[in-house]
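INTERNAL TRANSFER SHEET
From: sequence group
To: structure group
Subject: Glutathione S-transferase 3, mitochondrial

Please process the attached sequence and return the structure record in the designated field. Keep the field labels unchanged so the import script can parse them.
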Amino acid sequence: LISISKEEKKFAEEAAMAVSIELTKEYGYVVLVLVAYAFVNFWMSFQVGKARRKYKVFYPTMYAIESENKDAKLFNCVQRGHQNSLEMMPMFFVMLLLGGLQHPTIAAGLGLLYTVARFFYFRGYATGVPDNRLKIGGLNFLAVFGLIICTASFGINLVIRETL
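Return from structure group:
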């Protein structure tokens, strides 16, 4: 027979403890916001395609060169608006989905704000005046910061509680 101490037994029990998560119906809003953002992202990609044809910037060229294309800045602003949205997308998706597990309505609201702000961020950037991206579009930073707080809250609760 092998005997273990109380401390070893407690450690083994804690290590084996699982956390179960129940998805509430409100989590559906989180998922729908994710779908809405996917549509906005597709719309942005179509806008880049239209700009490629309009400004004659063909694949595989990522950005136009001003010495070779008089409309380089206009195209580059459209391209950059979409590219920046793609760069932020992984963080947005993870923070939305994880933060939404504990705070589904708050996360969905922040996710919707982020999605709308990203639309205006892109539209502002596409004017060819980069500062225009921040007029309404700058709200996306506030929204993602809120999602980070929701996700941090979820993580802290996982650590200090046995189950949700």
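Handover comment: The first helix runs from residue 6 to 16. The mean pLDDT is 92.
Transfer complete.
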